[in-house]
């Protein structure tokens, strides 16, 4: 049986000799698992804590990443209308609505919505890949900024998560002292 190696936090390690798609998806999954690990076990109050001189919270990060998943995999990659609740947000009035509105939600709801968005993104990627002979090279329309290929979308998702995993490391340590890569 060929099992994917995991680390001590049970995150699947990205493949060391995978092709481009497996490598990008492997790193994205590893970073998603890191966000789950950095937010697990925290109460709603802890997820909304601002332990550093910043407006950033782990709860806001979960809500923001829920939006990011939906935006890139639903709206851009799948070419669908903005998913709910993002389609009803007046972004001009509150460009940080995803971060700011998290304080209205409980911790379990934030984690559940994010996990559901991740699962939907996985399914959307599978559907997209099945529809294209060379999915990484397939063009997708990015509203207002022009076409790009799916490779760009996956690379951007890795970058987005990597940046926020660094933030999550600092926030979690400041909240309860938990550390780790």
Notes on the protein architecture:
This protein has about 180 residues and is mainly alpha-helical. It has a single domain, classed as dinb family like domain (Four Helix Bundle (Hemerythrin (Met), subunit A), Up-down Bundle), CATH 1.20.120.450. It is about 55% helix and about 5% strand. It has six helices and two strands. It has helices spanning about 20-40, 45, 60-75, 95-100, 105-130, 150-175, and strands spanning about 140, 145-150. Strands 1-2 form a two-stranded antiparallel ribbon. The longest helix has 27 residues, at about 150-175. The protein is globular, with a radius of gyration of 17 Å. The two termini are about 30 Å apart. The model has no long low-confidence stretch (mean pLDDT about 90). It comes from Kocuria salsicia.
SSE layout and pairing:
Elements: H1 20-39, H2 44-47, H3 58-77, H4 97-100, H5 107-131, E1 139-142, E2 146-149, H6 150-176
Antiparallel strand pairs: 1-2
Helix pairs in contact: 1-6, 3-5, 3-6
Summary tags:
181 residues, mainly alpha, Four Helix Bundle (Hemerythrin (Met), subunit A), two-stranded antiparallel sheet
What's the short story on this structure?
Helices cover 55% and strands 4% of the residues. It has helices at residues 20-39, 44-47, 58-77, 97-100, 107-131, 150-176, and strands at 139-142, 146-149. Strands 1-2 form a two-stranded antiparallel ribbon.
